[in-house]
Design brief:
This protein is of the alpha+beta class and 450 residues long. It has three domains: 113 residues, 3-Layer(aba) Sandwich (D-Maltodextrin-Binding Protein, domain 2), CATH 3.40.190; 94 residues, Alpha-Beta Complex (Dipeptide-binding Protein, domain 1); 175 residues, Dipeptide-binding Protein, Domain 3 (Dipeptide-binding Protein, domain 3), CATH 3.10.105. It has 13 helices and 23 strands. A six-stranded mixed β-sheet has the order 14-18-13-17-15-16, sandwiched between helices. A four-stranded mixed β-sheet has the order 1-10-9-8, with no helix packed on it. A four-stranded antiparallel β-sheet has the order 4-5-7-6, with helices on one face. Helix 7 runs antiparallel to helix 10. The longest helix has 27 residues. It starts with a helix and ends with a strand. The relative contact order is 0.16.
Length: 450
C-alpha cells in the first residue's frame, strides 16, 4: 500500500476512534433518569431548619443559586413599597402540594406563621388573592433573601402525619432510621433525575465512609477537620467556601454582665490554634462574623490572641467558675477543651458542661450563612443568636458599623469560619453544593448500570 494512502487511512481510523471515545464519554456523563440515591447523615434529615431532606421536600418563596444570587421559586416576582416596609410576593400559578392540593396564598401564610411564631423578621403577613403581603415597622431590605432560608420553606400543615411540600421529592416512609423519598412527577421545577432517595440518619462519619467504600452509600458527610484525610484517601469531594461560623455565645448574667470580663474572654481565645489544630487547617481563624469573601471587611477585625490584654481587662478580678457547653461530637469537645484551657491561662475557672447542654455561661455554637448577601447573612446570624435585626443597612459602611457594634458587646464571639464538604461515589453525576454548603441532591443523577 502506498505510504500516502496508509497515512490517510491511519488518520481516518484515529478520527473514528476519537469520535467513538467522545460519544462514549458523552453517554457516560449525560444525566440519567432512574435509580435510588443513597445518602447518609449524622443528624436528623428532617430536623428544622436545615435537615438534608428539607430542601428535597419543601420549597421557599425565593431561593439562591449556586453562586448565592437570588432567584424566583414559589414566588415568581416581588416588589417593595414605603422604603422596604411593605413587600408583595406574587405566587407561581399552578403549583400543587404533594397530595395534589393547590398552593394558595392562605397556605403560604399559615406555613410562614408556623415557622417562626413571634420571632419573625416581619411585623405582619396576610394573603391577598395570589399574593402574600409582608409589612413591618422597620425597613426590611433583605426580606427576599431571608425568605430563601430553610427556616421559611413552605409546608402544607396537616392535622397529623408528615408535612407535605411542593419540592422535587415526597416522603413515602420512614422505618429503621431510613427516610424514603420518591420523585415528584408533577414538580413545578421539573422531575428530578433519581427515582428515589433513601437517607439513613444518625450514622457516624466512620460508618458513612465505610458504606461509601463498600458501595452501600452514594453521598456521605465530610466534617471540615476530615477534609484532608478524605483527600489523602482520594475520595471524590465537593467542598464549599467558608459558610459556617463557629462562635462562643455568652450570657449577660452574673459576672458576665461585666463588659470587661466578656472582652477579656474574647481576647483570651486562641483562634489560630482552633483553626490549625482542631480543624486541621481547613478553617480560617476569625474575629468577624461574616467571612472576608462575603463582607470584604473581615480583615479589619484581627483574630490574634492577646493574653496580656485579657489579664488587663480582667483587672485582677477572680470570676466564679464558668460553665462551657458544646455539642457531643469529639471535635466539638476537643474545641471546648482548648477554649477552656485558653481561659484558664487568662485567670478564669472553666468547667465543661455535659455534652449538648442547652444552658451554660458559654456555649460553642455554629451558624450557617444562607447566601452571599452580607446584609441577609448578618441578619440570619443575629436572629439565630436572639439579637435584634431591625435597621441593618445594605451598603458596606452600614454593615461594617452594624457588625462592629455587635462584636464590641462580646456576647457573640466569632472563632473560626469553616467550609462544608461531602464525598460521593463513582456512580454519582452532577453532584455539587449550593452557596450555603448544602448538597444539591435534586439535580444529581446516577450512572446507568449495564
Amino acid at each position: 500500500m502506498p505510504a500516502t494512502r496508509w497515512t490517510v487511512c491511519r488518520k481516518a481510523a484515529i478520527s473514528c476512534v476519537l469520535a467513538a471515545l467522545a460519544l462514549s464519554a458523552g453517554a457516560r456523563t449525560r444525566p440519567h433518569y432512574g435509580g435510588t440515591l443513597r445518602v447518609e447523615t449524622s443528624g436528623d434529615p428532617l430536623e428544622r431548619p436545615s435537615g438534608v431532606a428539607r430542601r428535597l421536600i419543601f420549597d421557599g418563596l425565593t431561593e439562591t443559586d449556586d453562586y448565592g444570587s437570588l432567584r424566583p421559586a414559589l414566588a415568581v416576582s416581588w416588589s417593595s413599597e414605603n422604603a422596604d416596609h411593605r413587600w408583595q410576593f406574587r405566587l407561581r400559578p399552578g403549583v400543587q402540594f404533594h397530595d395534589g392540593s393547590p398552593l394558595t396564598s392562605v397556605a403560604v401564610v399559615s406555613s410562614l406563621m408556623a415557622s417562626c411564631g413571634n420571632n419573625c423578621p416581619w411585623g405582619s403577613i396576610r394573603a391577598v388573592g395570589g399574593s402574600v403581603i409582608f409589612s413591618g415597622d422597620s425597613s426590611m431590605p433583605d426580606l427576599p433573601v431571608l425568605l430563601s432560608a430553610d427556616e421559611f420553606r413552605i409546608a402544607e400543615l396537616p392535622s397529623s402525619g408528615t408535612d407535605g411540600g411542593t419540592g422535587p421529592f415526597q416522603v413515602t416512609g420512614q422505618t429503621n432510621g431510613t427516610l424514603s423519598l420518591a420523585a415528584n412527577e408533577s414538580c413545578w421545577a421539573g422531575r428530578p433525575f433519581a427515582d428515589a432517595v433513601e437517607i439513613r440518619a444518625r450514622r457516624s462519619v466512620n460508618d458513612q465512609w465505610l458504606d461509601l467504600s463498600a458501595d452501600r452509600a452514594d453521598v456521605v458527610e465530610v466534617p471540615a477537620e476530615s477534609i484532608r484525610l478524605a483527600q489523602q484517601q482520594h475520595l471524590s469531594l465537593a467542598i464549599s467556601h467558608p459558610v459556617e461560623i463557629v462562635a462562643l455565645e455568652l450570657t449577660e448574667s452574673g459576672m458576665l454582665g461585666n463588659p470587661n470580663i466578656r472582652a477579656a474572654i474574647a481576647a483570651a481565645v486562641d483562634r489560630n490554634a482552633l483553626a490549625n489544630v482542631i480543624f486541621q487547617k481547613q478553617g480560617v481563624a476569625a474575629a468577624a462574623l461574616l467571612p472576608q469573601s462575603v463582607s470584604g471587611f473581615a480583615f479589619l477585625f484581627p483574630p490574634d490572641r492577646d493574653l496580656n490584654k485579657a489579664h488587663e481587662l480582667r483587672g485582677g478580678i477572680t470570676p466564679p467558675s464558668l460553665s462551657l457547653a458544646a455539642d457531643a461530637g469529639a471535635t466539638w469537645q476537643l474545641a471546648a477543651q482548648r477554649i477552656a484551657l485558653n481561659l484558664r491561662e487568662a485567670g478564669f475557672t472553666v468547667q465543661l458542661a455535659p455534652a449538648g447542654a442547652q444552658r451554660a455561661d458559654l456555649i460553642l455554637r455554629t451558624f450557617r450563612l444562607p447566601s452571599a448577601d452580607a446584609g441577609a447573612d448578618l441578619a440570619v446570624i443575629l436572629r439565630a443568636a436572639g439579637e435584634a435585626t431591625a435597621g441593618i443597612g445594605s451598603d458596606p459602611e452600614s454593615l461594617y458599623k452594624e457588625e462592629r457594634g455587635v462584636l464590641e458587646q462580646n456576647v457573640l464571639i466569632p472563632l473560626v469560619h469553616l467550609p462544608r464538604a461531602y464525598a460521593y461515589g463513582p456512580g454519582v453525576r452532577d453532584f455539587h453544593l449550593r452557596s450555603d454548603g448544602s448538597p444539591e441532591l435534586a439535580s444529581a443523577s446516577l450512572e446507568a448500570t449495564p
